[in-house]
Amino acid sequence: MLVNLKEILAPAREGKYAVGHFNTYTTLMARSVIQAAEELDSPVIIGIEERQLELCPLEVFASFAIPMAQRAKVPVAVHFDRGHSFDKCIKALHLGFTSIDCDCSELSFEENVASVSELVRVAHALDASVEGELGRVPVAANFTEVEKMCLTEPFEAGDYVARTGVDALAIAVGNVMGYYKKTPKVDFDRIAAISDATRLPLVLHGGSGLSDKAFRKAISNGISKINIFTDLNIAAGQGIMQATNSGYTLMSEIIPYELHSMRVQAAEKIRLFQNRKGDVLA
């Protein structure tokens, strides 16, 4: 069933678990994630990031992701991730996306508040949700950038949430985008302080590569949504290699391997984020 972000994340915050958000710019990726969620009877979020629109335009993604979410046996939100363009965020809403992430984190605080507040007004009128961003999460995983990142300040986060009316908040707490090359220094105390200041579901971008222990600690301190792309992307490639190493060369022979590998990876993350044990997919 198609739902908005708030419908998924409010229960997650209350129940102290997290929901996985998987960027899925192909039908195979979306199928694998929704199948895993259905088999585990879990809510899930599928989305596409603005920088991935060269691979799959908004209209194309909406044409397959929204019907798949509507037919799903579990709650599925369709999310426009890290939208830097105001116009593209509005376009996503009118295409039927049920949530958007307006990344205005590189703007000044006041400019961020003004832009996101206007998107919240439009989104809420369409029964959609908005994820805001405060602080800056670097893309490349190296310690020079991490040291220079702009971390989210709890007192600013409380003010930001009150003034914008966002439904979730993505924060910078030592996390980075892409795969971690070294052990990240995630500030778990900062997560807890931001959670106390905002009383809102918090979002961790750059989830691929964190340890299970780090995920669980982040969730216990207030993270309710975790973004995954790199791990799913790697799983797709591994599935293709397994097929070719087994001597298969036709697409019809390769696709089942790719689907299975991504489905197993998605299920692993869903179980971890909900601290579930004993769920095994065939």
Describe this structure in words.
With 282 residues, the chain is an alpha/beta fold. Helix content is 50%, strand content 15%. The chain has helices at 5-15, 27-39, 58-71, 86-95, 109-125, 143-148, 154-164, 188-198, 212-220, 230-245, 251-273; strands spanning 19-23, 44-49, 76-83, 99-102, 129-134, 168-171, 202-204, 223-228. It has an 8-stranded parallel barrel, surrounded by 10 helices. Strand 3 (76-83), helix 4 (86-95) and strand 4 (99-102) form a beta-alpha-beta unit. Helix 2 (27-39) runs parallel beside helix 3 and helix 7 (154-164) packs parallel to helix 8 (188-198). The chain is globular, with a radius of gyration of 18 Å. The model has no long low-confidence stretch (mean pLDDT 92).
Summary tags:
globular, 15% strand, 282 residues, alpha/beta
What's the structural blueprint in terms of helices and strands?
Layout: H1 5-15, E1 19-23, H2 27-39, E2 44-49, H3 58-71, E3 76-83, H4 86-95, E4 99-102, H5 109-125, E5 129-134, H6 143-148, H7 154-164, E6 168-171, H8 188-198, E7 202-204, H9 212-220, E8 223-228, H10 230-245, H11 251-273
Parallel strand pairs: 1-2, 1-8, 2-3, 3-4, 4-5, 5-6, 6-7, 7-8
